[in-house]
Amino acid sequence: MTSLDSIIETLLAMNPLWVYCTVAAIAYVENLLPPFPSDVAIVAAGSLIGFGAIDFGPLLLITTVGSTLGFVTMYRIGDWFGDKILEMGRIPFIPIENVHKVERWFRRYGYWVIIANRFLAGTRAVVSFFAGMSELSLWKTSVLSFVSALMWNTILILAGKALGDNWSSVAFYLETYSKGVTLAVLIIALVVIARYLYKNQQSQKSSGLEKR
Length: 212
Prior knowledge:
The protein is mainly α. It has one domain (3-211). It is 79% helix and 0% strand. The protein contains eight helices and no strands. It has helices at residues 3-12, 16-29, 38-50, 56-87, 96-115, 124-133, 138-163, 169-211. It is elongated and about 70 Å long.
């Protein structure tokens, strides 16, 4: 039996109430400790609907609430500690000037990013962290993150329900999608850092020539 099959076996053996609680907890934690297999767990739970073990409505609601609460928790962490962590140099490879640029960019476009947040696997914790650090409206952030989670979880649950016993085939595509998004974000981040280092080096050279 594969580890994916064992997930179903474990969930089927649970009381429905505990299934809801377990999947909600996974959806919550995924926002704090990425990467965490919440998407796969939600698809697996969706397949249980076909077995009559749980219902679509409660599953969608509980996973969406869990995702939203996780997002808001990371938002609060960014709001309370974000600037302190970065300005104290705890993350030295991130130039503080670029962090402030991201904050300004987030204040302008952040709400659109939050709407797409659940579809950006591997970057969700970063989005919620910067949303808090940029001091976006908490109630708008909460509503938009709920809507984003609602749309994404609906897709996952319906996929699990439709595939039934073959739900595990979705795991491969979710993993590939997650890796692709994460890789794209890392490449963009590296390009930004490299650009900053290049500009900083050129600036130092120019300063050196002027002193001569």
